[in-house]
Amino acid sequence: MVGPELKTPPKWAWWVVIIGTLSVFGATVVSLQLERRPQHAGGTQAPLSGYPICADEKNIDFPEGQTTIKVAPRLECWSGWVITPPGTQYRLDPPKGGWVEARFLDGSEFRVVAGQPADVGVRRGIFRLRVMGPVTIVAK
Questions:
Q1: Nearest one of 90, 138, 94 to 112, comparing CA atoms
Q2: Residue 54 CA neighbour count, 13 Å, CB half
Q3: Domain assignments of the chain as residue spans, ordered by start
Q4: What are phi and psi of 8, to 5 degrees?
Q5: Would you call 82 helix, strand, or coil by DSSP?
Q6: Tens digit of pLDDT for each residue in 31-88?
Q7: What is the CA radius of gyration of the chain?
Q8: What would the mean pLDDT of 103-124 be, rounded to a whole number?
Q9: DSSP state, 94?
Q10: CB within 8 Å of 79: residues ≥ 6 apart
Q11: Strand order from edge to edge, sheet including 90-93
Q12: Tens of pLDDT, residues 77-105
């Protein structure tokens, strides 16, 4: 005895499956992109590297004519934007025995360990900091 014959589904059913699959995939990609997108000041801001932006964040500017500033960002959250003078190079000096993490506008990050100050360069003069203790920023 032979089982009943299976009928092939109509062509429109395949289109429904394909369009449904693409819709689910597209919605997933869009939602992931929206989660990663940082929002502007004044709104809720997305966490950076798993840490939130400090609730009392304030941007840190170099006073005119000053080339060294000392700031004390916190370990549990990212500081406001540190803005170095246009066209200058700068260096981050972490606290003794510690480290400092910097996150730039483009999303890249790096860590500087005490005793190994890093010249960051000109092109990335706006960044956030996360550190335990005070950090010195030297503009050249």
A1: 94
A2: 18
A3: 60-139
A4: -75, 140
A5: strand
A6: 666 555 443 333 334 445 678 888 888 898 888 888 888 888 888 889 999 888 877 7
A7: 25
A8: 73
A9: P
A10: 54, 57, 60, 71, 73, 128, 129, 130
A11: 68-71, 135-139, 90-93, 118-119
A12: 899 998 888 777 888 888 888 888 888 88
As its CATH architecture, domain 60-139 has Sandwich (2.60)
Residues listed for the chain: 140
> How far apart are alpha carbons 122 and 109 in whole angstroms?
15
Taking CA atoms, 68 is separated from 16, 39, 63, 112, in Å, by: 63, 30, 9, 17
Q: Could you tell me the two tokens for 80?
A: 């406001």
Amino acid present at 4: P
For residue 135, what are the β-bridge partners?
Answer: 71
